[in-house]
Amino acid sequence: MEPIISIKGLGKTYAGGFTALQNIDLEIQRGEIFALLGPNGAGKTTLISIVCGIVNPSQGNVTVSGFDIQRDYRSARRAIGLVPQEISTDSFESVWGAVKFSRGLFGKPPNPAYLEKILRQLSLWEKKDNKIITLSGGMKRRLMIAKALSHEPSVLFLDEPTAGVDVELRQDMWEMVRGLRDSGVTVILTTHYIEEAEEMADRVGVINRGELVLVEDKKNLMQKMGEKELSLQLPEPLQKIPDSLADLPLRLNGDGSQLIYRFDIKSENTGIAEFLRRLNSANIEFRDLHTRESSLEEIFVNLVHGARREHEKQLSGETQE
């Protein structure tokens, strides 16, 4: 099946010489939720801005629904709904007037029933006649989403969509996103709430210093790169790890009441059996145990730090040469 978004060899270097993106290759499938993760300044917003036709690329090609974003800008843009990070609205327009105007910008015929549905889903219907200037920050954020959805796009970009939105409304918004995905809308999001990406995304892309570090199915990523911890609850706290166990990947929690063994879930031999045998030989008893997998946030931090170390190593090599 042809991807709904195809990005090939994409790069962006600004006039001052700063390279924001380099050699990005990415395909996004129709009807998936794709989470783009990366630290501030990594290139997430630049990538979204290029796909949406706001920023011109220095090199490479991008198509959306089969339309080239430069040769067929209008057709490509009509397929896209964009919720930017910055809230930008006409403060003295009404909520209803704003979403109605946004729909008309894309040449769509009036559809009051559809606009009402969107506003109700975003808990804005009761505010439809209010001027935007009277809305709270969270309501303005939800209005931005309503405007992006007003012309019924097949692709929705959410750039930090839940910033400033309270927890309850955030859950309502994600419920709506799930519904959009189920109806066939492709959702691409950037977020600092990594637990949301872990809960929502079908696939995850990690970008750092303008390079796409990896793209992976979320479940596969956690299986391939995650680690597990075996945590043993001790009947009596330990002051330190015994010397006889010092060569093992062990640590004590703060008060010494838990002994934690970390192992690689990719390995055929986790070493747990040997660990428990040696624990018994050291006369260390435990009264309970449980396992915990690494979170997506831990994996993300490790990936970014690894990429940074590799970048610094390359710079060091260039300097020595």
UniProtKB/TrEMBL annotation:
Any one GO MF annotation of this record: ATP binding
Keyword Transport assigned: yes
Residues in ABC transporter domain copies: 5-234
Taxonomic superkingdom: Bacteria
Keywords: ATP-binding, Nucleotide-binding, Transport
InterPro entries linked: AAA+_ATPase, ABC_transporter-like_ATP-bd, ABC_transporter-like_CS, ABC_transporter_ATP-binding, P-loop_NTPase
Keyword ATP-binding: yes
Protein name: ABC transporter ATP-binding protein
Organismal lineage: Bacteria, Pseudomonadati, Pseudomonadota, Gammaproteobacteria, Cellvibrionales
